[in-house]
Amino acid sequence: MNIHWFPGHMAKAMREIGDSITLVDAVVELLDARIPESSRNPKLYALAGKKPVLVILNKADLADPGMTRRWEAVIRNSGTACVSVNSEKGTGIGRVKELIFQSAKEKLDREEAKGRNRRAVRVMVVGIPNVGKSSLINRLCGKAGAPVADRPGVTRGRKWIRIDKNIELLDTPGVLPPRLDDRQTGIKLAWTGAIRDSLLDPVQLAGELLLFMSAHYPDPLCSRYGLPPDLVRELSAEQLLNACGKARGCLRSGGIIDEERISAILLDEFRAGRLGHVTLDFPP
Question: What is the chain's Cα-based Rg?
Answer without folding.
Answer: 21
